[in-house]
Specification:
The complex is a heterotrimer.
Chain A: H1 4-17, E1 31-35, H2 37-40, H3 46-57, E2 61-65, H4 69-78, E3 87-92, H5 96-101, E4 105-106, E5 129-141, E6 166-169, H6 175-200, E7 204-208, H7 211-219, E8 225-229, H8 232-240, E9 245-248, E10 254-264, H9 270-281, H10 285-292, E11 295-296, E12 316-317, H11 321-340
Parallel strand pairs in A: 1-2, 1-3, 6-7, 6-8, 10-12
Antiparallel strand pairs in A: 3-10, 4-10, 5-8, 5-9, 5-10, 5-11
Chain B: E1 3-10, E2 15-22, E3 27-31, H1 38-46, E4 53-58, E5 61-62, E6 73-76, H2 88-98, H3 103-116, H4 132-145, E7 150-154, H5 162-179, E8 182-187, H6 190-196, E9 199-204, E10 207-212, H7 214-219, H8 224-229, E11 234-237, H9 240-244, E12 245-246, E13 264-267, E14 272-275, E15 288-301, E16 306-312, E17 315-321, E18 329-335, E19 340-342
Parallel strand pairs in B: 3-8, 3-9, 6-7, 7-8
Antiparallel strand pairs in B: 1-2, 1-4, 4-5, 9-10, 11-13, 12-15, 13-19, 14-18, 15-16, 15-18, 16-17
Helix pairs in contact in B: 2-3, 2-4, 3-4
Chain C: H1 3-35, E1 36-37, E2 40-41, H2 44-51, H3 53-86, H4 92-98, H5 101-104, H6 107-118, H7 123-132, H8 144-169, H9 174-181, H10 186-214, H11 218-223, H12 232-242, H13 246-274, H14 292-320, E3 322-324, E4 331-333, H15 336-341, H16 349-352, H17 354-384, H18 390-398, H19 405-419, H20 423-452, H21 455-463, H22 468-479, H23 481-497, H24 500-505, H25 513-522, H26 526-554
Antiparallel strand pairs in C: 1-2, 3-4
Helix pairs in contact in C: 1-13, 1-17, 1-19, 2-13, 3-8, 3-10, 6-14, 6-26, 8-10, 9-10, 10-13, 12-13, 13-19, 14-26, 17-18, 17-20, 17-23, 19-20, 20-23, 21-22, 23-26, 25-26
Classes of the chains: A alpha/beta, B alpha+beta, C mainly alpha.
Amino acid sequence: MKMHRFVLGVCITLTIAFPLFSMGAQKEQPLTVYAYDSFSGDWGPGKEVVAAFEAKHDIPVKVISAGDGVEMLTKVIAEQDHPYADVVIGISDEMVTRAYRADLFEPYHSPLLHEIPEFLHFDSEYRLLPFDYGNFAFIIDSERIPKEDWPTSLEDLTHPRFRKNIILIDPRTSNVGLGLLLWTIHIFGEEGWLDWWKAMKDQVLTITDGWSGAYGLFIEGEAPIVLSYTTSPVYHYTYEGSTRYQALIFDEGHQATIEGVGMLRSSKRKEEAKLFIDFLLSEAQLPIALANSMYPTNMNIALTEGFAYAPKPGVSLRMESEVIEKNLDRWLHEWTEVMSR
Amino acid sequence: MILQCSLQATYPDFTLDLAFTVQEGDLVCIIGPSGCGKSTTLSMIAGLIHAETGSIILGGEDISQKEVHKRKIAMVFQDYSLFPHMNVEQNIAYPLKNLKLKKQQRVQAVKELLELVNLQGYEKRKSTRLSGGERQRVALARALASEPKILLLDEPLSALDAKLRTRLREEIRRIHDETGITTIYVTHDQDEALAIADQVIVMDQGRIIQQGTPEEIYRTPRTKFVATFTGEGTILPASAFARTLRNPYHLEIPAKHRDPKNTSLFFRPHASHIVENPGEVRLQYLPFLAFDEVRVIRSEFQGTHWRNSCLWNEHELLCHSERKPKKEIVSLHVDITDLSYFEE
Amino acid sequence: MSDYRRFYRQKSIGPLVILFSLFALPLALTIQSGVWEEGSFTLKRIVSAILDPYTQRILLFTLKQAFYSTGAALVIGLPGAYILATYSFRGKKLIKALATIPFVLPSILVVLGFVMFFGNSGTLNTVLMKVFDLDDPPLKLLYSLGAIILAHTFYNFPIVMSIVATAWEGLDTKLEAAAATLGSAPRKVFRTITLPRLIPSIVSAAALVFLFCFNSFAIILVLGGGPQFTTLEVEIYRQARMMGDPSSASALAIVSMLINGILFLGYAFSQRTLTVTETVAERAFEERKPSPMRTFFILLYSLFTIIFLLGPIISVLYRSFSKGASRASETTFSTTWYRQLLGFEQSSSHMGSALTALINSTLIGVAVSILTVTLALLLSVSIARRKKNSSFLELFGMLPMMTSSVIVGLGYVLIARLLRPSLFGTYLLITLAHTVIAFPFALRTILPSVRSLPETYLHASYTLGSSPQKTFRTVEMPLLRRTLLTAAVFAFALSLGEFNATLILSSSRIVTLPVVMYRLIGSYHFQGACALGSILIITSGLAFFLGEVAKGDSV
């Protein structure tokens, strides 16, 4: 019957139309980099770093925002059979176990590793190379809350004066959120950490899925306290000359985090990928540190003045990845249980 | 082209079973009450509905299995169905395109057709902006444009007011005569049918009751149904004939008046004449029926005549008169040539 | 059965096969994924999903927010229905026009508009802080349950308003007059005569709103936050995308579908049993001129409606043109976000992908619109021209309405896992998912028009020598042009704003307008999101405008 001409016509239209979708997507295959949102985001270092790398090596790079850390890892695992990225930026030490289990990354013993202190080498096989590190901390808006009222410990955050004033991040979807979860387990132990979270339910304005969301809300002025890094004020000082936002240092200590970069086993552009990783571990260190509000891992990088506004915590807390691996699912389950009530 | 139809179909509410022949160039009217199956018959001829059994033989070819659009039978619908998204010219040119006419020829053909239906210069009018009569003409022109072997008209005037109806039915007859196209015309209005048809087919409950010229149908209805459907009249038991017959010159009475199968006799109101003075005898050589002691119950003025309802031996008689009867008790005379009979 | 009926019956085969594979296949995969484990059938996942206290709490919250939202929509919508049905006043048309806004506004835009208007630093709070010289935003509406209900109210109260107002206008006012002449006071007349006859429409509107809120996704995803404010749909998304566990997501999807089925049947049942139509030849009495007191009330309500409906949209447009030198300083007029969107200016990766997103969304929208309208037209004519099974076919066409778009998306995620499509293939899957979602709306638009098209037009055309195929092309399609255009524009707008299924299907490489908007909102690049949102508003507005213009031409 001629009626099928309709269906045929539609099919033809679609066939003609669809190649247009790839417009601007790729002409020559660039080196593809997955990064968490805050790397490529509006105040992330992605733009600057990529431009510098492209200028230096004449290798086109395409950075793709793949959500927050945990979401990005889920995505990479999901795409394992159909790999798209060559390099993944921002797998932090709290969540490496899943990455190791899926055997995603190709070991690369970069010559620059000797410029990075041993204690930051979180992967003995060098599947992931540390490019920045820092400590989680709560950032406070000094114009909204007077100094004498600032919280001095995690426990203090549960005080009624901070009711609906704190923005937290979901540990199921974000490594920053996960960092806080581990932090509370460090401080309150297996018996007490859930009580802290329970108490926090009245304190939070909202729990976002990722760090960018949380920090963006904070900057928009929606709440005066947000979960972030001790180094976050550096950005504001360096780019805005502002000391309005300050990191809260608690005597009990701060959870530490190391972020790694790695190249995927499936990558067909390993040489370019290595060049890019090396670039991240050398020239890109300072811009990343500034924009990402983290400390550079390379010892030879001189810190700028702004880092004076990033107070060093007295106690830096880290958890063995074996412990995390063993307990993480249970912790997340318990956390969900408590927080969904 | 001669059309011979034999159609059978069963429906939940009635059974259609009929056979008839339409002679070439004739204008045939099918009349009958609504629901009698006349429109269904038309749709079957057009091919919009399929008969279960039967044949439609057009010019020697059985077309009953042909698809609608290949039958070359045009139809004018009750609501005209002018395509609202086309103007008059496009509507009329629509079938011309199916005939694969060139643009030039189409324009010429549309012009001629519009002249035929007296709508010169209407080409660019929107079909939604036409009056009812204009739509009807455009629909007719459009149907003729398809160069049909037969033209079917399904109650083409029923949506129009009475005056316009009379004018347009003359128009249809004129166009039929000019084109000579074999036409079947369905209507429920017997006046319309009698006025323009060459042949009338009276239908009831899916069957043909009588076919004949308008005059035959009107004057000598073969059943009570045809008699009452085609107009008014008086129905009496056939026995009344013997009781009222006057045959002053003792002429021979035709056999049909004595046929025992006939149970009723019938005459039209204008066939009866009022005789107001008992002694008065109309100049009458032929045998006639004389109803005496008739009481005039009611007289209505109809413009051209008076319509009188009378009572005779508890039978109601209808009769027309030029003037209003002056007396209450009168006689009625009916020529026996004006009588028809049927079985009750 | 005559030839042309066969022609139309054959017409339905193609679309039915296509629809079945577009809709039933992903659905079947979802169900299979939910009940299949290592090659054998199991209800373990569904049972454990139902027994899991976390799921139960989510379900409870989903029902709770839907219940509150419906209540709020009724409270706000019913006075509007009363005003529209009872009084004639200047600006009534405007209110009616405004009430259609939420119908055509993509949910992600509603979210953005809400943050921009009701947020702690949104327009409303900024104005209030300036006017009353406050340091803190007085209205902290935006987070958790309150925000969700507010956004749902915005989205749904016009539905209540129009459905009930339409029913109200259709009531025979003579009955009220009769009751009054029988000695009932106005209050009693309302309670005993008017209200009982309105209840069917109120129930039906409430059921519809409840269904919408139950399946709400974007609003909860952005305005919710944390496990406490998660609904079933958001959890399905989270399981499928963030946790990478489509099987659990499917089990939840089955639970959701069951509840949806029950709700939908309840809605259909309430419509059938409750609706009684009154035949009113014409309104017996003039619409009332309101008293001064009532005038004030109407004015207040109109003002509220205008602010409530237009505020968020205007805030989005306004914010898209403003820029602060630093994040702390005052804002100034700027087109920088648009220049970044269109690639004239260096920007972050999300902003740079906006132009591609615009092209992609438009192409997908056009493809969806062509595909949907073609399928819906073919199915409509075959439903309308057939005698048997027509209501069955109609129901089949409406089936996608019974599943949420998140679940449609999930089904396509499962297809994608089977097919492992390229980037092009993924866009194709998105197009097909959009088609499934848009189809019932197109069918509902086209079918009544096809039904009301007199069959004699077709008959006339056949007797004039045109085949059924030619008649379909030259008579039926041109006559349905208006409807087809409306359906096409509607499908285009739906596709353009479709967020739920697209997000769950999208990888980081997929860029469509709402997805990029979500990413911009997610990284709190509000101005960029606003600029993109403005483009979305303008594009859909333009589509509707062009649709209207084209329709105006045809008659």
